[in-house]
Amino acid sequence: MQILVWVFDVLFISSLVGVFPLSLAETTSPGVCSEADRAALLAFKAKIVKDTTGILSSWIGRDCCEGDWEGVQCNPAGRVTTLAFQGPVKDSSMYMKGTLSSSLGSLPFLQVLVISGMKLITGPIPDSFSKLTRLTQLVLEDNSLQGNIPSGLGLLSHLQTLSLAGNHLKGPVPPSLGNLRNLGMINLGRNSLSGPIPASLKNLHLLQSFDLSFNSLSGFIPEFLGQFRNITFIDLSNNQLSAHLPISMFNLVSLSYLSLSHNLLTGTIPEQVGNLKSLTSLSLSSNKFIGHIPASISRLQNLWSLNLSRNGFSDPLPDVSNRGIPSLLSIDLSFNNLSLGTVPKWITDRQLSDVNLAGCKLRGSLPRFTRPDSLSSIDLSNNFLTGSISTFFTKMTSLQKVKLSNNLLKFDLSELKVPDGISSIDLHSNQVCGSLSSILNNRTSSFLEVIDVSNNLISGTIPEFSEGLNLKELNIGSNKIAGQIPSSISNLIELERLDVSRNLITGTIPMSLGRLANLHWLDLSINRLTGRIPTSLLGIKFMRHASFRANRLCGEIPQGRPYDIFPASAYAHNLCLCGKPMPPCRGKKQETSQ
């Protein structure tokens, strides 16, 4: 979010390039669109075969500069200086389909080129873009562009912003990009780039934001990063970078955001990490770091998010005083080689929003937090916590997500008093007993989206479901639940994942299950269900996984995708299921697939 705001600010400022003072504008006639520029724009439009945004439908008439051509701005001489489309990334119905025309390289006065969030623009980045020598902003993010990044982009010496993120680009990062000495922001994230970070990028002394995340880059993090004195944002996460952290990186006193998570980095965190006095967010998760977490980390006065999870850090934790890391709001130390025993007081006594200490060998009762009202997310899973839960949620009025799975907690569901605003509860693999009606009833909050109480000792029946629930995931598998699946399950209209496997459920599969249009995961296996698999399930269009294994079902499997192409194992060990992918039903000839 921070980097997007920064980009938009830059683009807003750059859109003012070429605007003349008011007095000059009053005495100068509006520029009439250059015929050459108009032809280049229409050639671009011709390569877009479908435009659901409606932007290009405004490109009519002779004059592309009079303001009616959406996304186009000109200078007083009638030459196009800006071409900018920004599509809504999350709205899949808004897109352009086609390719980028090389004709855009024939707009010699273009300073800003933004074609972003159009989703279905494919093909390569035209080599002709290297002729746009006045360009200061090039943003082609969140499309479907393919091929290599043209090395000719290194000729755009005035470029200040380069973002090609969120495409399908492959190959190396071109060393020629090191020629862009005016570059303040480079974002090549969310592609399929490979190879090392080129040494030539050391020339980008004005760089403030550097994002190469979510690629397949290898090699080491270059030492020259420490020369970028103005840099505030570095994200190299989700690559295959290896070796130790360069010491020079810890000289970046302006650095605010650093994410190196999901790589193959090794060694220790040097004590010099305490020099990053502007740092607000540090994520080194999912690497191969070892050793102790350095005490100097307590000097990071502005740090609010610390994620060191899934490494090999060992005891002891640094002794952080009450004044250490005063801005801290979120901490994740999960899945290291830590044997904490109890949650340190410098964590429990602090006003935090997110606490993640999964797999830290915590023992005894659930911890008490001095400021429970500030907590929005807690993950204490995969520990050895015991006892009851009855008072744990007291005063946790802001809690949204809680994960206490894989512990030794022993309590009745009737003791579970969760805050009204909670959206996700994960208690799987404990010793929880009682009835589901304690947490699923007419008082269940509409905010609740995820319930996982699988692999416990829960008994009773599945309760009736009232309207207004917004559950997206319900996992009650591996318990001792009996009775039938109620037809009111159709009231869970938002449900995406349902797992009732490994219980004692009887009766038939309700026809109403087919009304759950959003369902994509269904597991009814290892129960005592009888009757047929209802054909109403064919109405669920996005089902990716279904298992009916080991019940007492009989009759023809619904003959339509995806049920007739699921593996036979999804239907095995029933009484008499037949039809694809099982053997043909008796007396009925099975069609062979074409």
UniProtKB/TrEMBL annotation:
Q: Where is the Leucine-rich repeat-containing N-terminal plant-type domain?
A: 35-75
Residues of the signal sequence? 1-25
Recorded hits in Pfam families, A to Z, give: LRR_1, LRR_8, LRRNT_2
Tell me yes or no: is Secreted among this UniProt entry's keywords.
no
- State the compartments where it is located: Cell membrane
Instruction: Say which domain of life the source belongs to.
Output: Eukaryota
Keywords, A to Z, come to:
Cell membrane, Leucine-rich repeat, Membrane, Repeat, Signal, Transmembrane, Transmembrane helix
Its GO CC terms?
A: plasma membrane
PANTHER family the record matches: OS01G0149700 PROTEIN, OS01G0162200 PROTEIN
Q: Mind telling me what this protein is named?
A: Leucine-rich repeat-containing N-terminal plant-type domain-containing protein
